[in-house]
Amino acid sequence: MRHFDVVQWADFVRGLLDPADRTSMEEHLSSGCRKCAGTARQMRKLAAVADSEARYKAPGHAVDYVKAIHPLQAPESVDVANNHMRLTYDSFREPLPAGIRSQGQIIRHTRYQVGDHSLDLRQEIARGRSQVVLVGQITNQKEPDRPMPDVAVILVSGKEVVARAVSNEFGEFLFAYEPKARMKMCLEV
Asked: pTM (2 decimals)?
């Protein structure tokens, strides 16, 4: 007795076979093959689940939340004086408390570290907006009271400068930008 494989049963269930193959498989099922009948039954269940998933509509508030989060991509890399900073904290890796999830804005905190320097970033976007506001602070962990004025901060996408700022005496800087693909942040300390 010739058995049919799972791919053939998947095509059978979805009605994708030519009439001759379909007839052959129906005859095989009617002969009482338990193995193939079980495979066909599993494929019918799988097709039913796939069909119900295709008809599912996500709630509007969930779609809006995902669209709002998308622009808050952390920079692919952050470099300080040509040294690559390592991501040490990302708030998107933690669940938000219930009351925070329903706010009118989405906020992402990230922290980067290289040598004695750390960089804290806070990205905010209001729902329905496309512009991201980024607030950052660079500090020297070994000498926290040391001023960090005039640090040039540049956000680039490829060769395009997306935003730039200069830090104040506390190492703080601020800019707003339209999100782009493959962003990179460079700081000159």
From this structure: 0.61
